[in-house]
Amino acid sequence: MMGILSxxxxxxxxxxxxxxxxxxxxVAFACVRSTWYNSFYAYGFYEGVTLGYSVTIILYVFLTxxxxxxxxxxxxxxxxxxxxxxxGFIFIxxxxxxxxxxxxxxxxxxxxxxxxxxxxxxxxxxMILSFVAAHRPQPAE
Length: 141
Description:
Shape: elongated
Largest sheet: none
Number of helices: 6
Mean pLDDT: 85
Helix content: over 70%
Radius of gyration: 17 Å
Distance between the termini: 25 Å
Structural class: mainly alpha
Low-confidence stretches: none
């Protein structure tokens, strides 16, 4: 069983960042979902973004742990992760700002927007790490 799994990614900086992003986004989703909110469209977008990006992170980590980057060498996985993080940053930061503006002082909604902004910060850190790794010369195999 250990020959199939590649747990090195989960122990790397990028893997730890992905797991932290996933946990924070699920907390933000749970905060918004557990309250009655006034502006359905603002928080509906925020729920969709947090849940959608959480599923995307789970799928990416799942594929990486099962070693797909080693089998599918025709995809540049460093650039794919950079694009994933960039799009996630754009959508999550936009949703978090809208959620913060529409929170109306409700503490749990403010907490959800703060979680989103924290996830945006982690996405920027992940983008920087992906960018540096993509521009580092890769060893020939």
